[in-house]
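Deliverable D2.4 — example input (structure tokens):
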């Protein structure tokens, strides 16, 4: 799809998305294709979905069976560290089998809003929070971004990105933003981030509200924010605290809504559609320090003390 947005009189036009993509592809290495079953370079594995699914099965408890090297084992969909170890497994599970659309949806909505403003995607410096194996970064670059830095707490995610999408990110930080290292803190303070993106990472405890706010405050003001979250977490009280946080940030003018879209994120393991809400906003000011102090206390990281580790489920 071509995006050609007319600006105010006398300002000309933006480049089309296709033109920007062609220019970047001349210098940026492309990601390798997902290896199909039977390919000599792909590990011998296959997936088996459960024939019957408990109607009360929560999204973060979904699972399947993985057959690999002659063995069969149960794999939770949120066991990301294990999934990233196997080339092509993440893409096959979430994008081929479960039809996940979120990276493209968020990237296209962000591009549309940015291109309709005085900014341009190519000028943004984006912090990709919960970057995973680079699927979101890839979509952002295809939508016109030139500078994306990833951050994730899972080391295997960074390793998978380097293996499958070398050169995609300007840099990739592996750290816990609820208690970032001094090196990460210095990097976040130094980089002139103008956009925060977080896709398919919020609302299940994978990224606590404190980590989101730390990343949010690393973005300059004014800036852009693009994220998605399961619709239940915006329409009712949730255990992770994101519902109250997001509403409060809008109510108190910390963010200003630019676009909100309900859409099908992916299919569930039983084939039912899972709906998320995509949010594109502008950052108007930092999350205030009293809020940050309260979040640090809730997270168990007061005055720089280590955050409490979650017990295995």
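Example output (designed residues):
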């Amino acid at each position: 799809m071509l995006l050609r947005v007319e600006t105010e009189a006398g300002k000309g036009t933006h480049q089309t998305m296709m033109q920007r993509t062609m220019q970047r592809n001349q210098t940026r290495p492309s990601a390798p294709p997902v290896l199909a079953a039977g390919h000599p370079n792909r590990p011998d594995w296959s997936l088996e979905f459960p024939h019957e699914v408990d109607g009360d099965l929560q999204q973060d408890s979904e699972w399947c069976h993985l057959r690999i090297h002659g063995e069969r084992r149960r794999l939770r969909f949120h066991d990301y560290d294990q999934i990233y170890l196997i080339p092509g497994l993440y893409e096959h599970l979430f994008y081929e089998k479960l039809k996940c659309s979120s990276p493209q949806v968020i990237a296209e909505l962000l591009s549309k809003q940015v291109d309709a403003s005085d900014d341009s995607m190519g000028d943004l410096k984006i912090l990709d929070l919960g970057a995973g194996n680079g699927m979101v970064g890839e979509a952002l670059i295809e939508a016109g971004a030139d500078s994306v830095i990833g951050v994730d707490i899972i080391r295997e995610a960074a390793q998978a990105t380097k293996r499958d999408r070398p050169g995609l990110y300007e840099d990739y930080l592996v750290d816990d933003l609820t208690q970032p290292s001094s090196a990460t803190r210095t990097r976040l303070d130094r980089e002139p981030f103008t956009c925060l993106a977080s896709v398919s990472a919020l609302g299940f405890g994978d990224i606590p509200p404190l980590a989101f706010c730390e990343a949010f405050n690393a973005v300059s003001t004014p800036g852009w924010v693009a994220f998605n979250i399961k619709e239940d977490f915006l329409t009712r009280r949730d255990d992770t605290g994101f519902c109250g946080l997001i509403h409060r940030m809008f109510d108190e003018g910390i963010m200003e809504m630019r676009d909100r879209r309900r859409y099908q994120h992916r299919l569930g393991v039983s084939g039912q559609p899972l709906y998320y809400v995509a949010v594109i906003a502008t950052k108007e000011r930092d999350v205030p320090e009293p809020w940050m102090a309260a979040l640090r206390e809730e997270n168990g990281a007061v005055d720089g003390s280590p955050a409490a580790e979650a017990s295995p489920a």
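The radius of gyration is 20 Å.
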